[in-house]
Amino acid sequence: MTSFPRSPQLLKGGIVLLDPDTGMPVQTIVLQYNPDTLTRSLQLQGIGPEPGDRLEALRLKAPPLETIKLEAEIDATDQMEVATPTSTVAQLGIYPQLAALEIMVYPSVQQLLDNDSQAQMGVLEIAPMEAPLSLFVWSQIRVLPVRLTEFSITEEAFDPNLNPIRAKVSLGMRVLTVNDLGFAHKGGSLFMTYLQQKGQLATKSPQGTLSALGLRGIP
Predict the structure, then answer these.
(1) Percent of the chain as helix, strand, coil, to the nearest 5
(2) Three-state SS across 194-210?
(3) Where are the domains positioned within the chain?
(4) pLDDT of 19-33, one tens digit each?
(5) Contact, 93 vs 165, CB < 8 A?
(6) C-alpha dihedral over 8, 75, 25, 71, to 10 degrees?
(7) How many CB atoms lie within 10 A of CB 190?
(8) SS3 at position 179
(9) pTM of this prediction?
(10) What is the CA radius of gyration of the chain?
(11) Lowest mean pLDDT among 5-19, 138-152, 170-184
(12) Rounded to whole angstroms, how far apart are CA atoms 23 and 212?
């Protein structure tokens, strides 16, 4: 007799960091709980700052500026009930998970040391440090290159050693497009895939009729 699972497998959202040179994953951060809401906004990128420019009124110069905001929860309460005294969660709470998110907005220790070494040798101009490419993954059809723009952590509970055991993490991200990265960049390629998938989804949307709007034709 064939048995069926009581509930379908739930995919998790998360962030993947790619090496900027090789494009290979260097770290995958899976959200413990998927956020209940995800807010997206798109800012149109048109041509012509002045109203009344008839030649440019309907032209688009670039993909819209898309921003994403979400709030994720991290909670070690259940894990601590069954954890052994030597386990990571018992000794550090959720601090390792928070550190994995925080490290995305820091240059590496080696990068800082290399820049200091160059400064000590008299290098006048030091190139800005290139961080790993961040991908926001929200299902198989939404894998987006992003830059973190907002990041806040609210720690809500602590163990006896003051390690956080429950926290809310608010993330704000801007989607990076081919205008930001170029077509040859791994992130640019991923954005184009995302845009193609969006176009394919749009063709599956039910088509309305003019009569549903109370029109027999366009006046």
Answers:
(1) 25, 30, 45
(2) HHHHHHHHHHCCCCCCH
(3) 22-42+60-105+132-199
(4) 988 889 999 999 999
(5) yes
(6) 90
(7) 19
(8) helix
(9) 0.84
(10) 23
(11) 5-19
(12) 48
